[in-house]
Amino acid sequence: MAAEAFEDIVADFEFLDDWEDRYRYVIDRGRGMDALDDALKVPATKVDGCASQVWLHPKIEGGRFSFEGDSDAMIVRGLIAVLKALYNDVPVEQVTKVDAPAELARLGLNDHLSAQRSNGLRAMIERIRNVAAEAA
């Protein structure tokens, strides 16, 4: 079962009829995120494998995982917001157990992202899982 924040996204997607509306929704979620501090946009936080510039800054506090992120592409910023809803505030030892592909499939993202965006999304998930696995 996904976090409540992610379940809210799933419910919102059910109300949106077409993919143009869903893309706008994802982009709006990205616009709603705080920008990542430029001091955190360093090679150590940059995600390789993404066509656009992507940075993820993970944090583990009180045994719970969270991250901040940013991208120079609006749709990718939105995808980061979706991943934050999926992973933020999850106990660090549970992060690697989240079946992100299955959860994201509930949104239909697999069928509507370009190959480059799908590869970038997989790279972000892999980074999140690796950081959590190292910390657990």
Question: Which labels suit this protein?
Answer:
51% helix; alpha+beta; Sufe protein. Chain: A; globular
Structure description:
- This protein is an alpha+beta fold and 136 residues long.
- The chain has a single domain, classed as Alpha-Beta Complex (Sufe protein. Chain: A), CATH 3.90.1010.10.
- Helix content is 51%, strand content 13%.
- The chain contains 6 helices and 3 strands.
- The protein has a 3-stranded antiparallel sheet with strand order 1-2-3.
- A hairpin with a 2-residue loop joins strand 1 and strand 2.
- Helix 1 crosses helix 3.
- The longest helix has 21 residues.
- The protein is globular, with a radius of gyration of 14 Å.
- The two termini are 20 Å apart.
- The model has no long low-confidence stretch (mean pLDDT 94).
Poorly predicted runs = none
> What structural class do the secondary elements suggest?
alpha+beta
The radius of gyration computed from the alpha-carbon positions, rounded to a whole number of angstroms, is 14 Å
> Number of DSSP strands?
3
- The helix-strand sequence is HHEEHEHHH
Number of domains: 1
Number of helices: 6
Report the average pLDDT across residues: 94
Helix coverage percent:
40-55%
> What's the CATH class, please?
Alpha Beta
- From the N-terminal CA to the C-terminal CA, the straight-line distance is 20 Å
CATH domain topology:
Sufe protein. Chain: A
Report the CATH architecture.
Answer: Alpha-Beta Complex
| Main sheet record | 3 strands, antiparallel
Q: Assign an overall shape.
A: globular
- Strand line-up across the major sheet: 1-2-3
Please state roughly what percent of the residues sit in beta strands, choosing from under 5%, 5-15%, 15-25%, 25-35%, 35-45% or over 45%: 5-15%
